[in-house]
Amino acid sequence: MDIGTRLFRSALLGLAGNRAARALSQKYGLKLGAGRFVAGETMEDALTHAKRLNAAGIKVTLDYLGESISSMEEAKESERAYMALLENIHREGIQGNVSLKPTQFGLALDQEQCGEGIRSVVKEAERYGLFVRLDMEDSPWTDATIALVRKLRAEGCCNVGTVIQAYLYRSELDVHQLSAEGINLRLVKGAYKEPRSVAFDSKRVVDANLRRLIAARLDSRAYTAIATHDEAIIRYTQSYARTRGIPRSVFEFQMLYGIRTPLQLALAKEGYTVRSYVPFGRSWYPYFVRRLAERPANLTFIMRSIFSR
Ligand code: FDA
Predict the structure, then answer these.
(1) Fewest CB within 10 A of the end CB: N or C in the chain?
(2) 170 noted as active-site residue
(3) 295: CA distance to ligand 1 center in Å?
(4) How far apart, in Å, do the first and last CA atoms of the chain sit?
């Protein structure tokens, strides 16, 4: 990553946590261009997009946006929203599951209550035969997120998994241990601002680490979601699986809503399981900023859409 791109990414990721910028963006709704990455502000919006994607052969994971809340009342609100979401997925026969962020359930405020809220969602999902993925946030929450998943599994919930980020030094060991425990993982490059003390900051090294993690997971046969828009890594996964005789039933590709849709469709057509991550809700601002930070060209796209009004 060149120095300009690194500074740009760091400055934007700094803005993701900025309350004033968040409040300002909220005022203008999805009109600033966030609609390209967010399925809408309501559950109905998200369900409509989910059905469209399903009709095109793509599964979904629905994410009710929200993170870093400031009261446990907000956590309760998220829990209620996820309960309703699960019921809707079930009732409408949507091919999908849900992803949630532990800080949205109060991980930074009260770990015990947070665990109870997430447990209720996982139990409800279990009743419907649905899966719950705990997204991975920034590194202060890695241990607690993994511990939550382990605890739920120890209680007999097999419908829960989490995410491992290739930019963290610790991830190789985490993948090794979690694979031995048979835990369902999504592998990603990593989207947060992290210090050099915990994460690689070279794109080349992160990409190489992701490939290593993919190989380790495929060899373990534990179910894995390869979540990337990087075609070279997708090709690497396909070829690794082919040469090692690893069945397609033990992995899937995941991409974000609104990004590389033609590639999502092409992979689904080739017979791979493809899942689109569909976020919705009013708290879209930090999610949107992370998408901008991933690709400088996105900012040009947004500026153009604002000034062409
Ligand atoms: P990379 O950034 O190298 O991009 C490869 C190519 O994809 C780019 O050249 C571009 O063409 C396209 N692309 C990538 N990002 C784009 C964007 N924002 N807009 C337009 N085009 C783009 N992270 C995390 O820390 N915790 C998590 O729980 C998750 N969860 C998650 C779920 C799913 C389904 C996905 C796909 C991703 C995540 N991530 C995540 C985000 C992940 O860590 C990473 O930041 C992004 O996926 C971007 O990295 P790529 O692997 O796509 O590669």
Answers:
(1) C
(2) no
(3) 9
(4) 33
Q: CA 189 to CA 207: how far, in whole Å? A: 7
CA 117 to chain centre: 19
* pTM of this structure: 0.93
Sorted by where each starts, the structural domains of the chain and their CATH numbers stand as: 39-283 (3.20.20.220)
186 is catalytic: yes
Question: What's the CA-to-centroid distance between 220 and ligand 1, angstroms?
Answer: 24
pLDDT above 70: residue 149: yes
Question: Which listed residue (135, 138, 174, 207) is catalytic?
Answer: 135
By CB atoms closer than 10 A (0-12, 13-18, 19+), residue 215 is middle
Q: Which of 9, 22, 153, 186 is catalytic?
A: 186
As given in the structure block, the two tokens for residue 134 are: 């705990």
Q: How far is the CA of 227 from the centre of ligand 1 (A)?
A: 7
Q: Are 250 and 218 in contact (CB under 8 A)?
A: yes
Beta carbon of 36 within 6 Å of any ligand 1 atom: no
Q: For residue 60, what are the β-bridge partners?
A: 96, 276
Q: Confirm or reject: Cβ of 254 under 6 Å from ligand 1.
A: yes
pLDDT in tens, 97-127: 999 999 999 999 999 999 999 999 999 999 9
Asked if residue 211 has its Cβ within 6 Å of ligand 1, the reply is no
pLDDT tens-digit readout, 16-59: 666 666 666 666 666 667 888 999 999 999 999 999 999 999 99
User: What pLDDT does 293 receive?
Assistant: 86
Closest by Cα among 130, 34, 150, 18 to 82: 130
